[in-house]
Amino acid sequence: MKNRKMHLYKRILVTGGAGFLGSFLCERLLKNGNDVVCVDNFYTGTKRNIVHLMENPYFELIRHDITFPLYLEVDEIFNLACPASPIHYQNDPVQTTKVNVHGSINMLGLAKRVNAKILQASTSEVYGDPSVHPQKEDYWGNVNPIGLRSCYDEGKRCAETLFFDYHRQHNLDIKVVRIFNTYGPKMHPNDGRVVSNFIIQALKGKNITVYGKGTQTRSFCYVDDMVDGLIKMMNSDEGFTGPVNIGNPEEFSIMELAHKIIVLTGSKSKIVYKALPQDDPIQRKPDITLAKKHLKWKPETGLEYGLKKTIEYFKNIV
Ligand code: NAD
Ligand code: UDP
């Protein structure tokens, strides 16, 4: 505590701070000596993710839905509030668009009022089902505006538009990060994402559900690497707004992932095939040249090590 007084610590707001990524981010920001306010309405997040931080006097939790205005005094805002998995964001698609549009407007308004720096957790989904591979930030994307994923994809695209308009119109200091598939301990066990689904199925000896033929690809980033990238982006040179891709460029097919998880868990599960969901992107891999150049960031955790850590976590809760 004594050292802390000597620090020029910052007051940082993390929206969606009780979610998977947000909870790791709050923890790291506190470790770095900051004052952290976590705002969450527990739509997909849970107090369990942050209960270990509650004793810390520099951590505050506010139950609030960011589609309604919020008045706080902070120096920086990480805007992460939004359900991230297809099952959750398609459960109430109107609310998904609202959190991205109304929620972003409220957080941008807050940033403008208190002159705070604000980072948007955008997504590789802004590229849709990409016809350019790997995806670079200057690719405009291939998004279906009326499909089941549009509430999320178009919501996040509109949020990016709002961020850049607040930057141009009000000179706001913005940072936009396009997050690619991220995994790790504390993923929601029922959110249907591929890493958590496969691990839980493998640990329970149930069938591993591969959608389509399993030839579609994703690039999986371990959560610690993602948190490093988000913080480096927030602290990057003024004037560097992004958008910047943060993700692991090692690309795997979903079938390869299934086999890896079967081997690492020593499971006897069999692979079964299910229908491919609508508009499921065929391939995804970030080009991270920009992040390397501007943030001196690259992922440090290989898939096998990250999966082992994640499997350990799920062994304790399954
Ligand atoms: P998550 O669902 O675990 O966390 C989202 C958090 O936001 C939850 O705690 C939820 O309760 C909260 N929330 C939702 N609506 C809210 C509202 N209206 N007001 C306040 N809080 C609200 O998801 P995550 O994986 O931690 O993702 C965090 C952010 O990163 C999201 O914006 C997501 O779109 C983005 N992202 C994540 C990934 C990934 O692979 N995890 C990939 C791309 C982008
Ligand atoms: N997927 C799968 N089986 C599952 C869950 C997902 O084959 O049990 C596939 C899904 O169709 C997609 C990929 O895994 O091609 C990643 O899905 P996820 O929901 O994790 O993320 P996103 O599609 O948003 O990248």
Task: Describe the overall structure.
This protein has a domain at 3-180 and 222-247 and 286-299: 3-Layer(aba) Sandwich (Rossmann fold). Helix content is 39%, strand content 17%. The chain is built from 10 helices and 13 strands. The strands form 4 sheets. A 7-stranded parallel β-sheet has the order 3-2-1-4-5-6-11, sandwiched between helices. Strands 7-10 form a two-stranded parallel sheet. The relative contact order is 0.14. The structure holds nicotinamide-adenine-dinucleotide and uridine-5'-diphosphate. The site of uridine-5'-diphosphate has 16 residues, from helix 6 and strand 8.
Task: Write a concise keyword list for the protein shown above.
318 residues; alpha/beta; Rossmann fold; seven-stranded parallel beta sheet; two-stranded parallel ribbon; 39% helix; 17% strand; disordered N terminus; binds nicotinamide-adenine-dinucleotide; binds uridine-5'-diphosphate
